[in-house]
Amino acid sequence: MAVTAKFVTDRVEALPNVAAALTLRLYNDDATTRPVTFAISGDLGVHTRLGSNSATLETNQIVDVPVTVLVPSTVDAGMHTLTVLVQLDPDAANDSGANDGPPVATATIDVPSHSDYTVELQPARSKGSSSGRHRIRLANTGNVAVIAELSTIAMDDAIRVQVAETTLTVPAGGTQETTVQVTPTNTFWNGPTIDHGFIVSATAPDGRSDELAGTYQQRPRVPSWLGPAAAGAAAALIIGAIVWFAFLRPWVEDTADQAAADALREQVEELEAAAAEAEELPLGTPTDVRLDVDPAGGNSERAVEAARLGTVLSITDIVLQNPTGAVGTVAWLRNDEVLLQSELANFRDFDLHFVAPYQFEASDEIVLEVTCRTPGSGQSSCPVGASLVGFEDEAD
């Protein structure tokens, strides 16, 4: 006299992200009603759902429980065992009529191999006077390793495009990155920016090929704001010389005429104000921006702030904060262009000061992106902050 359990179909094929259906069949040939519960085990247990977690079996009753297995695309290919343990009610299990051990039903799940991946060029556009930097990111969403061969094509002879690794081998469920360096054959000191196009091709042994288009914006070596800054400094020197030779020196030599001195003082104050205005570099009014990101473990998150319309934002200082000691990566971007990138473990509170500011033109996005691999002790997320200090000026 016993409760028995079995899968009516004890072997099925489970395609990635496609539900595979089985039936768990229970039979009670005992003279006593048997309440039972179910426990799932096996390496696919977390991907298995039962139509019910318990059942009550009357004498000579058959009960079918639907079972669904939904296998993610990254589960290893091959044969997997699914086991359901049928647990009797403790009081019923101690009855003399109960079977000696809990019934067990076992099924074989056949997961076929499949290859799939995504490949991206980040950012799509880079800027610089002497080089541009991009990265190729390949994420394997299949259940077998992916090997991709990388090659580059420059759309004109004015640039050289080099990839750090020509072959990427990524295990199932993994991600790998490599850098792409774009270098102009010639640089120029001033003038308009020039856009250079290029293509990175990723080819897999199965014949799949992806072409990723990118742009390197070559800028002049002398920033556009340097000319106005030099003109302002020169004007300040000239005004200072005029103030001294035309007014201050005569005033020092002849202080007898108080009325003339008062008039001179007013003129000096006006000229000093003009000089102070001329000495100011065209960076604008001091301002600051705060960005905070708090992704959960294993996730990425972005904080975005846009430069106001009609303005130019110049960032001269940045302080990065990782107060909980989280592990992961942080990147500071202008739109899709990576300006700074670092491991969270490389700093707790880390400040940077720039001789030449990073400029954000009207509507440019200031982005703080954090990937949280391991939260700090006692934490479930990776709180990271960035305080940015600079100047805001009206756009030309």
Strand content: over 45%
The global form is elongated
Q: Provide the CATH topology of the largest domain.
A: Jelly Rolls
The number of helical elements comes to 3
The CATH level-2 architecture of the largest domain is identified as Sandwich
Model regions low in confidence, pLDDT < 50 over at least 5 residues: none
Assembly category: single chain
Computed CA radius of gyration, to the nearest angstrom: 35 Å
Question: What's the main sheet like?
Answer: 5 strands, mixed
Main sheet: strand order? 2-9-8-4-6
String of helices and strands: EEEEEEEEHEEEEEEEEEEHHEEEEEEEE
The top-level CATH class of the largest domain is Mainly Beta
**What is the averaged pLDDT score?**
83
The proportion of residues forming helix, as a percent range, comes to 10-25%
Number of E-state strands:
26
Q: What structural category do the secondary elements indicate? A: mainly beta
How far from one another are the termini? 91 Å
What is the topology?
Elements: E1 3-7, E2 11-13, E3 20-28, E4 34-41, E5 48-50, E6 54-57, E7 61-69, E8 78-88, H1 90-93, E9 104-111, E10 117-122, E11 125-128, E12 132-140, E13 146-154, E14 159-163, E15 167-170, E16 175-184, E17 194-203, E18 209-218, H2 226-253, H3 258-279, E19 285-293, E20 300-306, E21 311-321, E22 327-334, E23 337-343, E24 349-360, E25 365-374, E26 384-394
Parallel strand pairs: 2-9, 11-18
Antiparallel strand pairs: 1-3, 3-7, 4-6, 4-8, 5-7, 8-9, 10-12, 12-16, 13-15, 13-17, 14-16, 17-18, 19-26, 20-25, 21-24, 21-26, 22-23, 22-25
Helix pairs in contact: 2-3
